[in-house]
Amino acid sequence: QVQLQESGPGLVKPSETLSLTCTVSGGSISSYYWSWIRQPAGKGLEWIGRIYTSGSTNYNPSLKSRVTMSVDTSKNQFSLKLSSVTAADTAVYYCARVEVRGVQGYYYYGMDVWGQGTTVTVSS
Amino acid sequence: AIQMTQSPSSLSASVGDRVTITCRASQGIRNDLGWYQQKPGKAPKLLIYAASSLQSGVPSRFSGSGSGTDFTLTISSLQPEDFATYYCLQDYNYPPTFGQGTKLEIK
After folding, report:
1. Considering CB atoms only, which of A58, A112, A117 is closest to B94?
2. What is the pLDDT of residues A28-64, one digit of tens each?
């Protein structure tokens, strides 16, 4: 079955750029949407953004000026870059596959496969 | 952004109990709502999409209902493995927004 694995530095200095990669195994990255979500310790979930395998993206407006997502279909990977990080960006970062399903003429998104999450700490 | 408010924030219940969690949207979201379960140290798991459609592999004791602004997740008979935190997520408008979570604990 499809599995996702996040990778990247666990420690990033303030004002620098956080870079994470999600590797998709057991299936193709093509023809799906892929999302990034984060969760500060002890807090709730925040949607960061979504990318389709064509490269089209949607970002959370609260982060839009600092976020860039990309996809590399040849490597079955997609990536997240978050610039100018501060301590407020310290969190567990998850990648997830977005399943789109048609129900009674409408389309619905559901994040049906998740990575295990990777902890990123912003500190000098 | 649409605000999603869950209630209660925490809940104590016993194995075998019927439990209902509510999620209210700050504006109408049709039925573009999902429910996720998260256990400590684990990634969330999709339970329900389109407000009432059960994700493949999820036990039938989980059910969802609602449309517009008010939604519920019901667990018909709590099992030991159901004690977790539950989140609703609206995907009607950008950005998708989560509720603050409901922590379901053992009584």
Report:
1. A58
2. 999 999 999 999 999 999 999 999 999 999 999 999 9
Cβ pair B33, B86 in contact under 8 A: no
d(CA B106, CA B75): 14
Min Cα separation B98/chain A (Å): 6
CB contact under 8 A, B36 and A111: yes
Tokens of B17: 């109990």
- Each residue's pLDDT tens digit, B9-42: 999 999 999 999 999 999 999 999 999 999 999 9
CA A83, chain centre distance (Å)? 14
Give phi and psi for B94, each to the nearest 5: -80, 140
Interface with chain B: mutation pick from A106, A111, A118, highest number of B CBs within 10 Å: A111
Calculate how close chain B gets to A8, using CA atoms only, in Å.
17
The residue of B5, B32, B49, B98 whose CB has the most chain A CBs within 10 angstroms, and thus the best one to mutate to test that interface, is B49
